[in-house]
Amino acid sequence: MKNLKEIRKQKGLTQTEVAQKLNISQQTYSDYENKKTEPDIDKLIELSKLFNISLDKLLKENKDEINNNQHPRYSDNLIEKIKQLNEYNLMKVEGYVENMLEEQNKKGSQ
């Protein structure tokens, strides 16, 4: 993910202010900036709106960090499609992705 700290500072916001706007704790937002955790799709959308930056640009830095198992060629197209979803379908996609990741993590730990 593009440097959240850099973007936040360019917008003249503190971590606390961003966290309040996202309805999360300051610690959670700090974890995003320090790459300890990743925001879910809803928070990514909120961040892109708050910072007035496209999801593509917000996520761009990660493209260089994606390993071969994560199919980087699909990421731009997928992001564009996700941006077109209504709130209901966005929630369905998020749930589906979370279930897939849980299954993947279970298989990986066996």
Annotate the secondary structure layout.
Elements: H1 4-10, H2 15-22, H3 26-33, H4 41-51, H5 55-65, H6 75-83, H7 87-108
Summary?
Helix content is 69%, strand content 0%. It is built from 7 helices and no strands. Helix 2 crosses helix 3.
Outline the structure in words:
The protein is mostly helical and 110 residues long. It has one domain: Orthogonal Bundle (434 Repressor (Amino-terminal Domain)). The protein is built from 7 helices and no strands. It is globular. About 8% of the residues have low confidence.
The first-level CATH class is given as Mainly Alpha
Largest sheet: none
Rg (CA only): 15 Å
Query: Count of DSSP helices?
Result: 7
Q: In the CATH classification, which architecture applies?
A: Orthogonal Bundle
* Overall morphology: globular
Helix content: 55-70%
- Average the pLDDT over all residues and give the rounded result: 81
Structural class determined from secondary elements? mainly alpha
Output the keywords.
110 residues, mainly alpha, 434 Repressor (Amino-terminal Domain), 7 helices
